[in-house]
Amino acid sequence: MSAAQQDGSAQRREPAVLVETDEALVERGSNEREPLIRRSSRPKVNQSNPPGLLVLIGPALLAGIIVKAFDIAFLSTSYSRIANIPPIASELKHFKDASWIQLTASICSAIFVPSYSYLLTSFGMRRMMFVAYGAFAFGTALCAMSTTFVQLLCSRFVLGLGSSGITLLSMIIINDIVGFKQLAIWESFVTCVEMATSMTAGPLGAWMNRRFTWHSVFYLELALILLGLCILCASFAKISSYPEYSDSILLKEGNSKLPRIDIEGWLLLLLAVTVPLIALTLADNFFDWTHPTEMCLLVAGPILICVFVLFETRAATNPIMNMAPIFKPQYLRVLFQVFGVILILNSIVFIIPPYIQVRAFKVDSFEDWALTCVFLGFPAGAVFGGYLVKTGHIPVQRIMLTNAVLLQFFCLLFFTRIIKPESEKHAPFLVAFGICTGIWQSCLLFATLSSTGKQWWPQTLALYYLVETFGGDLGMALMATITRAVAKAVIRSSLGESEATEKIIIDAMKDLETVGRLDERSAKVVLASFENAMHSSFFLPCGMAFGVILLAGGMNIWPPMSNYEELQPEESECGHESDATAGSIP
């Protein structure tokens, strides 16, 4: 036997306990087969996450996902009514500011979603999961006890702290367990659970809102999230009892060292997210569009976003987000599509409830079920999109381009009033719109992760959800601003400039129910003004959909399945799968 062969035999006979140096770990960092959370040196034989791990942690993840989906669906259906319920919560007469009930939690979610990926290495998955669930439970309790509009907004901010962690950590766990190839399918399964919850939450929450109070809905959410916390405790206790899971990402405690807090970065992120939304809220509400303060705020928004990116890239010693992948043109195109699609979806979902409320004022309508139809189509689209992505029969860029054209088609149907969401006869259109947006979700998540290496995936997911949240918030704020400005202008032109007209405007902006106390002519004018204003705001999603078509047409995504094989586990000489996707469910 030659010396080389003897060497090879000796190496194969060595035990599979390898201690890697720091240099070796750094060198392996670019390998896309690495797990999302880099593990310390340890025996190689127990590194995998068997499929059973998802069965153990799955109920806890689903509990958090269900409660979050319930909260979002209830507010999407009833936020405009929460802001003007008489006489139970007369302090909440803020119809014109009702969007902030949703925006506050979303702003907090956008700000803190990077913190979970930032602190994950230091404190481990288990601690961060309990922080997310605990913050959501505490925020829900505060919402249930709120008696004023300001108290409710502050409570929603606390709730958003937990909401951001539930989403991000759930996706990191699922991706680490099942692997990249299965991610689209499992993500669509999560979407099905979310949408099934949303279809129940909309009508149930609206009924509880009318039958009892909106507080009762938050008490129900509190009970559900506390149940989720109990399931989470039981899941981790069960996982800890199995020796084969000792090296799982779920039980990794982290180094317990608090990283240096990048205060400047957090402050810039807070300003970059909130200043544009505040500017849109103040416009034509407290300041004229031409007021110096308003103009400064409008200009400062985009500047602060650019400053945040440059600071994190060039100046931050401990950046809260690694911005290296963001300068790749391919990744930027994907992020802009994420921004555009979620802006379109949230714009339409946001405007449908008040649009129906105005069009069917004091008349039985399809209001409680309109968004349920959208939520019904969304999981079907997500599953179909996940299947197309997984099989690779159709190139991803072709799916995205076709779907962009369909999205533009639906936006035009809303804009031309062909789709009437207050009528049950148009429910199929709403379901089809949900299917279209569901397909987008699967494609965009795949495109986002495929455009960066796996070592960047925690940061990539954090940035993905940050852009998604900010795009959704901006869409809601723009729709509210356009509606408010156009409605005021139309009412003034129809009823004339007078103190009486201004009082009608102020009362209607606070509480739409006051329209019922006006004379017949004035009531018709006010309702028609709001309807036309909301209808005119549909030009925003139409214009954004055209931009998405251009971006999708310019995409040059990888050939279908071209990088799947590169990310799949290879069998070693000992027959073990690599860490990245060990335990994938075929």
Automatic annotation (TrEMBL):
PANTHER family assigned to the protein according to its UniProt record, in alphabetical order: MAJOR FACILITATOR SUPERFAMILY, VACUOLAR BASIC AMINO ACID TRANSPORTER 4
Region feature (Disordered): 1-47
Protein source organism: Fusarium albosuccineum
Taxonomy, superkingdom: Eukaryota
Membrane topology note: Multi-pass membrane protein
Species classification: Eukaryota, Fungi, Dikarya, Ascomycota, Pezizomycotina
SUPFAM superfamilies for the chain: MFS general substrate transporter
GO molecular function, one term: basic amino acid transmembrane transporter activity
Transmembrane regions listed in the UniProt entry: 53-77, 98-118, 130-150, 157-178, 218-237, 265-283, 295-311, 331-356, 368-389, 395-415, 427-449, 461-482, 538-558
Coiled coil: none
Name the UniProt record assigns to this protein: MFS general substrate transporter
Keywords for this protein: Glycoprotein, Membrane, Transmembrane, Transmembrane helix, Transport
